[in-house]
Amino acid sequence: MSNVHELNFLKEKIQELKDEGVYRKLPVLETANEPEVTLNGKKVINLSSNNYLGFANHPRLKRASIEAVEKYGVGAGAVRTIIGNMDIHEELEKVLSEFKREEAAFLFQSGFNCNAGTIQAITQKGDIIISDELNHASIIDGARLSRADKAIYKHSDMDSLEQVLKENRDKYENILIITDGVFSMDGDIAKLPEIVELAEKYEAMTYVDDAHGSGVLGESGRGTVDHFGLHGRVDFSMGTLSKAIGVIGGYVAGSKTMYEWLSHRARPILFSTALPPAAVGAITEALKMLMESTEYTDKLWDNAKYFKSKLGSLGFNTGKSETPITPVIIGDEAKTMEFSRKLLENGVYVSGIVFPTVAKGTGRVRCMVTAAHTKDQLDKAVEVFETVGKEMNLL
Ligand SMILES: *Cc1c(COP(=O)(O)O)cnc(C)c1O
């Protein structure tokens, strides 16, 4: 008999990963998340972060973070419902609701647990959740935690969505349609105006996950709802504070009623400690910076357009992206991973993304341009893309 502590069942699964050639070690970052970093001991241009605005190591955010630590310490000390709800948490929620142009915003410890906690709190048995097939894993997990039934519609396919709505309207009490605002693998934007119209026609609620839209789309990064001018017509406007905002955390913006209910029933708020003061201080500063000026989002879009057009003119296929997310579609899985590896050898880090994260035969490297990149860094990266592309006969 083998010893139970040896975890042999896991060892077998790990061996399977190795046999399939998908076993890997996590890359180790030895510097702050900047346009140029030291990764696994090598200096490279970073085209892989979600740090869209370059806020993750911004001096103003760092200063605000340190001030919050000096005054409030390093930990909130409890869940929000007991004694972890500090005045700075509530102040941040007020700034967030102003930024998002909604009545209220409810703060979570991460985007992931915001979806996990909110979706189950606002749905129940007798309801149905209707979800885009390409929605993020945290939405899928959130829906799994709910007692509501679930249905999927084809990616951004409004006929498919209407079909699902038609079939189910009379069978359920409440309907919740959920979509990513910006889809992270292709960079395309949800057809939110059409989704909202269908929702209103079939009396359904709408929920937008704006992880990649917050800080990117809309006036000074207010998000997809702002981009389309749909304020007041999307019930739950979820966002993360970990990507463009550069820190950590999540929130859902919407009505005061939503706020009241979540403060009683969102499980991550009842059972997990509140965000630490350092994060709250930095996030509040980031939002103030965005409300003062559009310079950060302007720079992001300027860089994204510059990089995309350069790659496009070399002949790379950058797909249907409408945002700074720039996929370079290679197709074949092995070739994609080889391309990513060769880019890294030549000093550019872009992660390769293949099946099952994206459909078979649509392997890509996903470039994430930020406001902090210089044109010189982007030019250097494009040069490396050209060299490696030619070497591999991709151009
Ligand atoms: C990253 C991401 C999340 C999770 O956000 P975290 O703040 O990193 O937990 C949720 N939804 C989508 C669409 C994301 O891309």
Automatic annotation (TrEMBL):
Keyword DNA damage attributed: no
One GO CC term on file: cytoplasm
EC identifiers of the protein: 2.3.1.47
Reaction(s) this enzyme catalyzes, per UniProt: 6-carboxyhexanoyl-[ACP] + L-alanine + H(+) = (8S)-8-amino-7-oxononanoate + holo-[ACP] + CO2
A biological-process GO annotation: biotin biosynthetic process
Top-level taxon of origin: Bacteria
Keywords: Acyltransferase, Biotin biosynthesis, Pyridoxal phosphate, Transferase
Residues that bear N6-(pyridoxal phosphate)lysine: K243
Keyword hit for Electron transport: no
Record domain Aminotransferase class I/classII large: where: 42-384
PROSITE patterns: AA_TRANSFER_CLASS_2 (PS00599)
Cofactor section: pyridoxal 5'-phosphate
EC primary class: transferase
A family per Pfam: Aminotran_1_2
Pathway connected to this protein: Cofactor biosynthesis; biotin biosynthesis
Entry-linked Gene3D superfamilies: Aspartate Aminotransferase, domain 1, Type I PLP-dependent aspartate aminotransferase-like (Major domain)
InterPro entries the record matches: Aminotrans_II_pyridoxalP_BS, Aminotransferase_I/II_large, AON_synthase_class-II, AONS_Archaea/Firmicutes, AONS_Archaea/Proteobacteria, PyrdxlP-dep_Trfase, PyrdxlP-dep_Trfase_major, PyrdxlP-dep_Trfase_small
Molecular function GO terms recorded: 8-amino-7-oxononanoate synthase activity; pyridoxal phosphate binding
Subunit: Homodimer.
NCBIfam families linked to this entry: bioF, gly_Cac_T_rel, PRK06939.1
Homology family: Belongs to the class-II pyridoxal-phosphate-dependent aminotransferase family. BioF subfamily.
Entry function: Catalyzes the decarboxylative condensation of pimeloyl-[acyl-carrier protein] and L-alanine to produce 8-amino-7-oxononanoate (AON), [acyl-carrier protein], and carbon dioxide.
Protein known as: 8-amino-7-ketopelargonate synthase
Source species: Tissierella creatinophila DSM 6911
Taxonomic lineage: Bacteria, Bacillati, Bacillota, Tissierellia, Tissierellales
